[in-house]
Amino acid sequence: MSGIIQLLPDHVANQIAAGEVVQRPASVVKELVENAVDAKATEIKLIVKDAGKTLIQVIDNGLGMNVTDARLCFERHATSKIRHAEDLFALHTKGFRGEALASIAAVAHVELKTKQDQEELGIHIIIEGSKLVTQEVAVLPKGTSFLVKNLFFNIPARRNFLKSDNVELKHIIDEFERVALAHPAISFTMISNGSEVFNLPSSNYRQRIVNIFGGKTNEKLVPVAEETEILKISGFVGKPEFAKKNRSEQFFLVNNRFIRSPFLHHAIMNAYDGLLRDNNQPSYFLYLEVPPHTIDINIHPTKTEVKFDDEQALYAILRSTVKHSLGMFNVAPVLDFERDATLDVPYDYKNKTSSTPLIQVDSTFNPFATETETKRYSGSSASYAKSTPSQPHWESLYTDLKQDTFEVSTTSFENEVVASKLFDETQVESQTLMYQFNRKYIIKSMKSGLLVIHQNRAHQRILYEQFLTNITVHQASSQQLLFPLEIQFSREEMMYLKEIQPNLEGIGFAFEKMGFDEVVISGLPAQILDTEVNAILHDLIYNLQENLPEDSFSLSDSISKFMAKSVAVKSGKYLNTIELENLVNGLFACKDPNVSPFNKPIFITLTTEDLDKRF
Q1: Residue 516 maps to a domain
Q2: What is the DSSP-derived secondary structure letter of residue 230?
Q3: pLDDT in tens, 591-604
Q4: Angstrom distance (rounded) from CA 453 to CA 458
Q5: How many domains does the chain have?
Q6: What pLDDT, on the 0 to 100 scale, is given for residue 101?
Q7: Residue 234 and residue 228 in contact, taking contact as beta carbons nearer than 8 Å
Q8: How far is CA 158 from each of CA 12, 30, 151, 303, 403, rounded to the nearest angstrom?
């Protein structure tokens, strides 16, 4: 009788391994670009089509491979980075497991072209689903070109679980930015569907950040630098006034490798304590260098989660360094016990000698003395007393009390019509019909009882239907600005903004210019203030990045919901009587006044019977 345990075939084992390494097209991009960095390339070019589902190609001018290495790199656990187990604790390269290329070749069509500098000819290999199709020599330039087509062609279930092209492209850009930030000395280029997304020349850390996130980023950065025995910190943090509501500009790069660390992130937030508005996140681009033996990067397949030997020390150093930088550049208030700037002597008075002021005091002056007594005094006080009119004796102030106080009643006044009620009947009626409770609810009386309305959700419903109608018919009124607004975006954000531009124009936005990283807005919807545009558009793009709908109606619906939520009157705002009436009338003019755009109840009714039951 044969046993029930058996070894898996190689192609099945590779597909299982691919489930850990290759989760989406961005995983392929990460592995191939990191391999190009390890190959000591100075120029790396990434080409994607249909968000990597159809094509991913990485071209570099690195060392290249010979025939043996080119064939062996697709085998499992084949790596040039590790020889002994101890090497795991002294890693200076990106990839080291030797599973990436084998996993990619198991779920895609892979084409490899590579050549070393000292060789005359290169090697061209084609592999489909872990099976070698062709292997031949070819005339090639120095370096390596990996071409991955039809990802997950043999695993349809995995392909169906991929998100839309916009979402997958966002993940690819995220991986590309992380590697590009870690290696500013390398030139990077990214092309998506024939259009150039990034063209990053070789530069320093600061310039690389500016090239990726836009020209205005330079004025937001505060340099950070510190070196100790266990940690070296360099990089930049953002000024508190430029903080965002999302975490799109937060990067920890440990030994030139991007990592996620909630623990270290908490240290940054602690350093910004008291400087940020609620729910805002600071930007930071921090490069940390630690001894390789004090960090374990082999605890997660994607190598983005690491384990430090002494996390508490790193926390304290990072927190104090960031706090010191914010204070040193006058971003945060600091205490300086050595000098008080308010006591500095102005330049005009530094060479002048001080003079003692002359003060004359009349010790005989009595402010309560009578006129005759005052005349006897000599000096300045006497002359002053002569010039002032004579004052009666202080006892005369109380002579009027001897008179009959009831004589005031004989004084005649103008006849006035005295109202019998404090308020007009119409005013009292309007106030009893509708009023605002706790600056959150609107209470309106009805014949059958009371109507309690949630003011924020009611306004959301009104604005949602207005925005959705305007996007559909493109007849929204636009409020023209006297001075157009210039708003900066990153390259990635501009891609999404250009895609939703027709929908925003339907709402009432008027775009005068759309550049690579800048937008000029000349008109706004009537419901939006010019001071709110920057935050609203950035938050809108961030929310759409995670799940950008593919069909136009779902996109219009998502934009209308977000805009209504952002612009709607918030709880805690006072509304006068006219505003209350307009809000209630507008709510019951909607097609569906019962629930908000997010399916939450807008109002409840309390009938007379319900109130009677309470008593």
Answers
A1: yes
A2: S
A3: 999 999 999 999 99
A4: 7
A5: 3
A6: 85
A7: no
A8: 15, 19, 9, 22, 104
**Is residue 67 located within the same domain as residue 190?**
yes
3-state SS, residue 362: coil
Q: Are strands 131-138 and 55-60 parallel, antiparallel or unpaired?
A: unpaired
* 184 and 227, same domain (yes or no): no
- Round the CA-based radius of gyration of the chain to a whole number and report it: 37
Round to whole Å and give the CA distance between 543 and 555: 12
Under the banding of pLDDT at 50, 70 and 90, the label for residue 33 is very high
Q: Largest alpha-carbon pair distance within the chain?
A: 138
Residue with tokens 């570099």: 60
Beta strands in 438-594 (DSSP E): 441-445, 449-454, 478-488, 510-514, 518-525
Residue 150 burial by Cβ neighbours in a 10 Å radius (0-12, 13-18, 19+)? middle
Residue from 177, 196, 208, 251 nearest 26 by CA: 177
Q: Report the CATH number at residue 320.
A: 3.30.230.10
Query: In 221-310, where does DSSP find H-type helix?
Result: 262-271
Q: Are residues 189 and 303 in the same domain?
A: no
Whether residue 212 sits in one domain with residue 132: no
Where residue 558 sits, what CATH number does that domain have? 3.30.1370.100
Give Cα separations from 102 to 65, 99, 122, 276, 594 (angstroms). Answer: 16, 5, 21, 47, 56
Q: What percent of the chain has pLDDT over 70?
A: 77
Provide φ and ψ at 274, rounded to 5°.
85, 0
pTM over 0.90: no
Q: Let me know if residue 284 belongs to a domain.
A: yes
Phi/psi of residue 245, nearest 5 degrees: -90, 0
Strand order across the beta sheet in which 195-200 lies: 131-138, 122-128, 109-115, 143-149, 55-60, 43-49, 187-192, 195-200
Residues whose CB falls within 8 Å of the CB of residue 155, separated by 6 or more in sequence, listed in order: 15, 107
Residue 343 Cα to chain centre, angstroms: 40
Structure tokens at 547: 């799940």
Domain's final residue, options 165, 200, 235: 200
> What's the CATH code of the domain at 170?
3.30.565.10
The tokens describing 310, both together, are 């002494």
Question: 431, 552 in Cβ contact below 8 A?
Answer: no
Q: Domain boundary at 293, 328, 363, which?
A: 328
Per the CB < 8 A criterion, the answer to whether 56 and 22 are in contact is: no
Burial class (CB in 10 A: 0-12, 13-18, 19+), 343: exposed
Confidence band, pLDDT 50/70/90 cuts, at residue 381: very low
Average pLDDT of the chain is 80
In terms of domains, do 14 and 151 share one? yes
Residues 100 and 238 in one domain: no
In a domain, 155, yes or no: yes
Residues in a beta bridge with 147: 57, 111
Query: Residue 138, SS3?
Result: strand
Report yes or no on 166 lying in a domain.
yes
Helix count and strand count (H, E) for the chain:
19, 22
Within this chain, do residues 164 and 31 fall inside the same structural domain, yes or no? yes
- Structural domain including 24 reads 10-200
Same domain membership, residue 170 and residue 24: yes
- Ranges of H-type helices in 354-489: 371-375, 380-387, 425-433, 455-473
First to last CA, the chain: 81
**438 φψ region: left (φ > 0), alpha (ψ -120 to 50), beta (else):** left
